[in-house]
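In this section we walk through a basic example: taking a raw amino acid sequence and producing a predicted 3D structure, encoded as discrete structure tokens. The instruction is simple. Fold the sequence below.
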Amino acid sequence: MEAVKKLREDWRYPTTLLCIYGFFSTVKPLEPFLIPYLTGPDKNLTTEQVNNQIFPVWTYSYLSVLVPVFLLTDWLRYKPVVVFQCVSLFVTTAMLRWMYSVPAMQAMQFFYGVVTASEVAYFSYIYSMVDLKRYRKATSYSRSVQLLGYTVGSVLGQLLVSFDLMSYDNIVVFTLVLTAIALLTSCLLPMPQQSMFFHRKHTGQKTATEGAEGHVDGTGDATEHPSGSKVSEERLRVENAEARGEMEDEAGTGLDEKGLKVEDLGESVGTNTCGKVLCQLWRDFRQCYSSRQLLYWSMWWAMATCGYNQTVNYVQVLWEHVQPSQNFSIYNGGVEAVSNLFGAATAYGIGFTEVRWEQWGELALGGFSGLGSAALFLMTFTGNIWICYISYVVFKGLYMLLITIAMFQIAADLTMERYALVFGANSFGALALQTIITSVVVDSRGLGLGIIPQFTIYASYFSFIAVVFSLRGLFTIWTARRRSKDSMAPEKTEPPDSVEHKF
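The resulting token sequence is shown next.
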């Protein structure tokens, strides 16, 4: 029993369970073949119904539940939302298997929007369970295993379809089994005792003792800010003092000599601090986006993510248009797997580049966005499915490269709480833009455009991003060089006044 207790207290235990959950919840063999499944004899839906009536519901659902789920995730301390996410994923997969009508498929997309919005719980859970010095490893493991799950799912789907080992319906049932394993794993996750916002008192207790020691000896700072961000020891001391002060204001009595309450520490945290949390979130939001550099990087994040999501959501419809035969989708799984691996390779490789991204980053955003736009135009107007596949792989790899740079730059000078806030705000901005584009361009109640006009708009959209950020990047470089020249110029010295010094 002692060994089991020690294992559960180790940071590897919750990290391992979360990685198992992340893997089995992302292995979706049918996802690369969703369009042929819905438009084939299994569901007998038309491409127009899928494109203009069913898929837009996901965007509307995602937007409507994102903010409530973001707040509930922190208030409920992550685990309940992780379990709820898996239940919603199970319901989504079951509806995909046993429902047939357009309204039923729209309801399925609604539940999938809930699943997507709940991903914030998956990415936030681990930070409440591990020490500050373990953040980088835990984040790397949890993110990498998700990418592995998507890749395995794509390869597995490709093998099952290529060798005719399972029908589409049986593949969905197989996915239900994998989801059930993920659901069981989510129930085994330990329940966190703290969170970043609503239950921050527990976090403050840890920061004021263990966290402070980690930062004094330099380990915590080197881990949370691997890029060499400018977080001073004085700032940490102030934050720790504020954490202790907040505890004294809330509790009043019952504190020991270190400023920590002995018992009943968190009984009223969730109910008494809701208003304070919302006010603090608003103050942090204003302070974060007062930085011009963070604002520009966040604008690219929101705009590019919007275009990326639209492209990924509807690319299978484009592939069907390029090669409208019954075997058009035979390589979809392989293409998705290759694109995931290529995106991971570009994101991983960026960590080994020595570039002053604060100076050259915005120009890189513009230049590579232009290449992504060219890839989209090529996908749209080519008649060769292989050129379309290759262009998609290039586009996805470029996005993964740039979003990694953007996340790195934004996170460099933010605490974990503020990074979560900026991440949520940027995602909400991307989703708001995506909702506008979907309602106007895709939805049958709007313009209801065909797939070629849609992708022409997406490619033009990335061209606009490329122009804006290329101009901004050139201006940033010109400003930096001008300042450099001014600082290197010799100071002018006034000649001695001969009249004034005559005596």
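Looking at the output, two observations stand out. The chain is about 75% helix and 0% strand. Residues 379 and 388 are 5 Å apart (CA to CA). In the next section we compare this with other chains.
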